[in-house]
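Follow-up to my post from last week.
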Amino acid sequence: MNVRYADLAVGDWLPALVKVPTTEQLVRYAGAAHDFARIHYDHAHAVSRGFDGVIVHGLLKAAFLGQLVTTWCGPGAWVRRFGVQYRRVDFPAQLLICHGQVVAKHEENGQPAVDLELWTENPRQQVTTRGTATVVFTTPEEVKA
Amino acid sequence: MRAGESLPARSVQVTLADVVRWSGAIDDYTPIHFDAAAANARGMPGPLVNGTWKAAVLARLLSDWAGESATLTRLSCRYRHPDLVGAQLTCGGTVTAVTPTGGVDEVECELWVADAGGKRTVTGTATLRVRRREATDPGPVTLATEELKAALKVGSEAGRFTYPITLADLDRYREAVGDPALGHEYAPPAYFGVLDPVERRELQLDPTLDLVPYARTGGGNAFNEVEYERPLRAGDVITVATSYTDVYERDGRAGRLLFRVRTNHLYDQQGALVARTRMGHVLAFDLGRRIA
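User reply:
Got it. Predicted complex:
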């Protein structure tokens, strides 16, 4: 999908992205990100830390929100600013729904841009990650190196 | 919370389903809110949003913002203009006064709902009672000691590491995330999290935490942020310079929390700055359990 900047309005929702992280996915992410904190793959360790089981990497949830944004904006735009705060832990085999909404349209260094609010929601409809992003509507090739 | 502080504005699109649910929930079946013909007969182009629904959205804005330690004790709204079902509305507010009384702050707010043209269709005021965290005397105890800050080299560079980015690296990451954009040469936005020497355990200042003489009860990443000068791409060779910029503590539900914030500057193979990141980590300690 490629949204057109002219068609965007404050309040627009990004199509939600639904994830159900698996323990295999956590291990794959650990390998891809070189992040081998045991809380994400060692059940006994996670239990000893007071959790019911292993927990999803915060940065994997950030990656899900990144996918939500890039799938929506397509290759004609790029993410200039991106930030997340982790509010609650998430567990594998549980629904994790990624949401986003346009909260501002403006110019960034003379280029068309939007600000987004992003969040992940667990099956109890609690917000577990809160984020923001600024998407600039020029292709990456047009960005001065 | 301080006088003058803005509440985070929020956008809502009101659907017919919303107002029908609302009619059912409050048992008010005035047809003007869901029956287009009834609305037309009253000279309106379509069904109108219930004023009380807009008030409820403002109440929700307040309670989400103020959190669990707050109670909404008063809410007053004036419905100045009708809004049509389907309208895009924005809600917001401002803190107008904070008055400490005993262990509680009385927080006064002004609230508003605006339509797509920016016209304020609802204005209101509210009072919140917000419990202050009990001021347990922390005594001489602090986690964020000068000794710890010195061990973390706060304010100066703690380490520098170089990471080449290949298309295979990006695709392994996308496969792990479940992102179907395989083969795309530009890195996904959250890829900065992979280029962090602390997450990768290459920069390990954790032994400095032995300086903290209390039992650790939990912790994890608190936040991650990035600002890019340009997108990262396959073929880049990125050098990351890491500095701890801030070490501070505060009380939370899990005990005394120690925050360590580090900043990464990411430079490319030409030495140009590509991105700045801020990574926040939090650890919880039980100040009642002193360890040797």
